[in-house]
Amino acid sequence: MFKNRCRQIHHGVFLEIHFCTSNKGKFSEAEKILNKYGVNIIHAPLTLEERRSESVEEIAEGCALRAYSILRKPLFVEDSGLFVPALNGFPGAYSAWVLGKIGNEGILRLLSGAKGRSAEFRCAIAFTEGKEVRLFTGSVRGRVSESIRGNGGFGYDPVFIPEGGEKTFAEAPSLKDSLSHRAGALQKFGEYLSTKVK
Ligand code: IMP
Q1: Is the four-CA dihedral 86, 89, 92, 98 of positive or negative sign?
Q2: Residue 84 maps to which CATH number?
Q3: Which of 1, 27, 91, 169 suits a disulfide with 157, CB 3.0-4.6 Å?
Q4: Tally of structural domains, the chain
Q5: Positions in the chain short of pLDDT 70
């Protein structure tokens, strides 16, 4: 079934896959990138219960299978987080929950006086048609800024400065589109979908 759908790309017709996420920011980032590969994504705003794990890969895999049991259509989910070595990887896979509890202000407070401000965003995309789950990962290194800056993006974007830069992701959304953890994983995913038809 999937092969037939993919073949449609050759005839200029878009392949359609559901993206299960309750985060509109993630959806619009994914839409921009996957459209370039001829993939049309449909927003499935499911709130999926996440298994407890420190690994974004494990969480994404579990969510993909749970989402499939509801939708029964080709779909992908994404799990991501900000990992700060000076905080032993915190907030990591608990990033969404931590942001809701202490916000970016709280992260800056935790890092005041810390040894180093390096940080890494990690992303795992899990794609399934029901049987197996394929994972595509991406990451971007950088540091946590000293203050909250910028209006673009979402989540930790106002406090994350990618390696080699001076602006936060929230100050430079177009930079984020090209080098973010999610962009990296989505590009691999888009390439996979394209090569499946060759
Ligand atoms: P989840 O993947 O929905 O469990 O949540 C990951 C959380 O990490 C999000 O709610 C954001 O707070 C944060 N996050 C993930 N990706 C990004 C990003 O690209 N920019 C800023 N924050 C992000």
Answers
A1: negative
A2: 3.90.950.10
A3: 169
A4: 1
A5: 1-14, 196-198
Nearest by Cα to 133 from 80, 74, 92, 195: 74
Question: What pLDDT is stored for residue 16 in this prediction?
Answer: 80
How remote is the CA of residue 81 from the centroid of ligand 1, in Å? 5
Q: Full-prediction pTM beyond 0.85? A: yes
Q: Which of 50, 79, 157, 171 is catalytic?
A: 79
In the chain, the N- to C-terminal Cα span, in Å, equals 15
Q: How far is the CA of 93 from the centre of ligand 1 (A)?
A: 9
DSSP 8-state symbol, 17: E
Q: Which two tokens stand for residue 4?
A: 């037939």
Question: Is 157 marked active-site?
Answer: no
The answer to whether the CB of 130 falls within 8 A of the CB of 72 is yes
What's the pLDDT at 31? 93
